Amino acid sequence: MLGEQLNSVESRNLLSTIDKMRKLLHDEKVNLPEIVVVGDQSVGKSSVLEAISGIQLPRAQNICTRCPLELRMKTAQDEEYATIRSSVGSVTEKNIDDLTKIADEVTRLTSEIAGTGLNVSPNPIYLTVYKRDILYDLTLIDLPGITRNALPGQAENIHQQILDLINKYIKPPTAGISEKLQGRGSGSMDLQLGCIAVLNRNQDEIDRNISFSEMKQREKQFFITHKEAFEPLPDEFKGSEQLVRRLATIQQERIRSTFPDIIKKLKNQLAKNKAQLKKIPPSVNTEAECWTNFQSMINAYRESIHDNVKGEYDQVASMEVTELPITCTDVDAASNDNIDSDAQDDECEEEESLAEENDEDHIAYHIYQLQRKFQNECRQSFPDFFSSKYHKIVLREIDRTAGVSLPNFPSYQIIVGLFRKELQKLPHCCHALVKQMHEYMSQCLLQLFEQAFNNDYPRLKERLKEIIIKRLDDVQEVLMERVNGILDMEKRVFTLNHYYMDTVNKFKEKDKKKNDAHGGTNALSASLSPNPASTAIAKKSPGTVAYASMSNEAQAAQDIQIALHAYSKVKYSIWFLIDI
Fold first, then answer.
1. In 3-state terms, what secondary structure has residue 545?
2. What is the 3-class SS of 157-201, one letter each residue?
3. Going by C-beta distance under 8 Å and a sequence separation of 6 or more, which residues neighbour residue 381?
4. Is 33 exposed, middle or buried (CB count within 10 Å of its CB: 0-12, 13-18, 19+)?
5. Helix ranges restricted to H, 201-340
6. Which residues pair with 130 in a beta bridge?
7. What is the pLDDT at residue 474?
8. Domain ranges within the chain, ordered by starting residue
């Protein structure tokens, strides 16, 4: 009954399926039921396999099996033959019609996989044998024997390599182990599945080429002759045929018990692989398809930049507003409500930090903030031309140019020199603006680039990133040159803008009104004069306009200060296109 079950079509199909799965899933982390032959070197593992399969395997004095040999035994109805193939290199199966040539083919493939030396390899050889005298389909895996000491030409860690290879096969709980019985005692292994006694060919029988069929007869006679010695052992635990039967039974039991779980794991693995497969972009087979994909990504990148420049941010539409934020303007408007000024500053700083955290790609907003900062820095770079401190500076410059022109007509070079001196403060903030613009645009454009370009084309992505960075660096260099050119042009103090004279006249008219209001005292000059005692009220005569008595140098200094203030206002309005 058991023999019919083991030889049933269902059992054969199950084993064939497992064999195919093992071949296909060799590099996958899927545990399959398998029977592995392990043990020390030269303890008779190959002899057991020969007795089971009835075929001659390679033999050598030192290590012989140097890579896993997956031996599949199939019952043949007609002619006997074998197929063999390697798991690396050429994977084409080779038919072997003469079974006596199997050992030579195994040796050849072993040299191809593990080299011609004495080292081992984890890549297996697949050998399938079809014979008429095979009782049950069975698959065994022969592993290299455990080597304690490395031989000349072997890797120093050959012992650990073999142990790692063995553990890879026997670690799964579904693995069955068949090895030669070495006795019991300290260090022996508890054989939970029992042991079966077999008689292998000795060296003399191997040298005399005793056939395997004759060896089976000798084995049967051996147990009859030594009946008393093996009397405690039941008949189902004697002989190679019983070993095959036992192994086939264990194999079928393991296959049937683990097959549902294997299918479940494979389905889960397939689902994961399919999910990963969907992430793989479609293949690009033509130049037109390549260009289409490239243009699509470039267009998405360009639109993303344009949207952020125009202020069309994706986050705005999806924001969930739970309460209205308090802006700095709102805080200032509520300053009369006994709100602590420090708390206001903290809220404003917190708001700015939140904006910086969440709105890094808001190009329009950040460019505007950089422009405002630059505008304030430029305004602050010019001093208060009407301060007493600056009045002293102007008087000093007038004193240095004494004798060049009339006392009441200041030298034009004084105005040019003073303005150029103040102009020297502008390059720092101008260059800082260019660098800040470059730093922000580099960060923002690369961030948008990462969003538009996925990792499907890594080489293209890296190349485009290099181009973007180089282009930004080139633009920064060009901008620096243009800024320096503009600053050089500003050294020429000249304007046709009517706002200049309008501003000058406005200040003089304002000063005249204050003079009249103070009974002839020049209010502006009085506030600027380093020595107020020198200022006196002028005598009035019929037909004359009263004005304060002041030195020619002080009057010239006042005119220069008004001219510098008016000219700086004109230049500031031109630079930032604002109304003065």
1. coil
2. CHHHHHHHHHHHHHCCCCCEEECCCCCCCCCCCCCCCCCCECCCC
3. 422, 425, 426, 429
4. buried
5. 203-207, 212-225, 240-279, 287-310, 314-318, 328-333
6. 74, 81
7. 94
8. 2-180+190-277, 319-358
Own/partner pairs, 404-408, CB within 8 angstroms, 24+ separation: 407/552, 407/553, 407/556, 408/552, 408/555, 408/556
Most confident stretch, 142-151, 343-352, 540-549: 142-151
**C-beta separation of 304 from 452 below 8 A:** yes
Neighbours of 259 (CB within 10 A): 16
**DSSP-derived secondary structure letter, 40:** B
In this prediction, what percent of the chain has a pLDDT beyond 70? 76
Q: Which two tokens stand for residue 13?
A: 């199909």
Report how far residue 446's alpha carbon sits from residue 444's, in angstroms, rounded to the nearest whole number. 6
Return the structure tokens found at 382: 């010019």
Tens digit of pLDDT for each residue in 369-425?
A: 888 888 888 888 888 888 889 888 888 888 887 777 666 667 788 888 888 888 888
Q: Which fold has domain 2-180+190-277?
A: Rossmann fold (3.40.50)
Contact 176, 254 (CB under 8 A): yes
Per-residue confidence (pLDDT) for residue 32, from 0 to 100 = 66
In whole angstroms, what is the distance from residue 80 CA to residue 130 CA?
Answer: 5
Q: Is 241 helix (H, G, I), strand (E, B) or coil?
A: helix
| Strand-pair category, 69-75 with 138-142 | antiparallel
Structure tokens at 89: 């290199």
Query: How high is the pLDDT of residue 540?
Result: 40
How many angstroms separate the Cα of 81 from the Cα of each of 84, 98, 306, 382, 449? 10, 7, 72, 100, 62
Largest pairwise CA distance in the chain: 163
What does the chain come to in residues? 580
Helix, coil or strand: residue 57:
coil
Count of CB atoms within 10 A of residue 54's CB?
20
